[in-house]
């Protein structure tokens, strides 16, 4: 059973939106921190609210599977900037403020049933750029003199 779409706002964590997460079954996914208003919305939709005692606080994980049940691939969620322009390939870092569009749905599999949500789109309101570097540059820090003559 499909239902109406929802849009919630919150901070994004562990966003695998530009490239899917392939640790297990490939999915695009993001954890969205919840304030009391958005927590009530996702709970009403039957989604699982988690809290691991970290920066995310109360959060929900929204996903979109890369593959459909019939084996064909799906498009990733739409990503736009705050002016509704296409996003490009900039990675979305933890703490970025986003609006997220999702569609709740009911599922049944292997004798179990539940509710989940299809991650449809993300609008980046305020970006915290993700960098793959472990450290940031320290302007007045020590710089190694490069050896010459080799």
Description:
The chain is mostly beta strands. Helices cover 6% and strands 41% of the residues. It contains 1 helix and 6 strands; from the N terminus they run E-E-H-E-E-E-E. The protein has a 6-stranded mixed sheet, with helices on one face. A hairpin with a 2-residue loop joins strand 5 (96-109) and strand 6. It is globular and about 65 Å long. 23% of the residues are buried.
Concise synopsis of the structure shown:
This protein has one domain (6-126): OB fold (Dihydrolipoamide Acetyltransferase, E2P), CATH 2.40.50.140.
> What is the distance, rounded to the nearest whole angstrom, between the alpha carbons of the first and last residues?
68 Å
Main β-sheet, in a few words? 6 strands, mixed
- Tally the helices: 1
Q: Which parts are unreliable, with pLDDT below 50 for 5 consecutive residues or more?
A: none
Structural class: mainly beta
Outline the secondary-structure elements.
Layout: E1 6-21, E2 27-33, H1 36-44, E3 59-65, E4 78-80, E5 96-109, E6 112-126
Parallel strand pairs: 4-6
Antiparallel strand pairs: 1-2, 1-5, 2-3, 5-6
Give the key terms.
six-stranded mixed β-sheet; mainly beta; 1 helix; OB fold (Dihydrolipoamide Acetyltransferase, E2P)
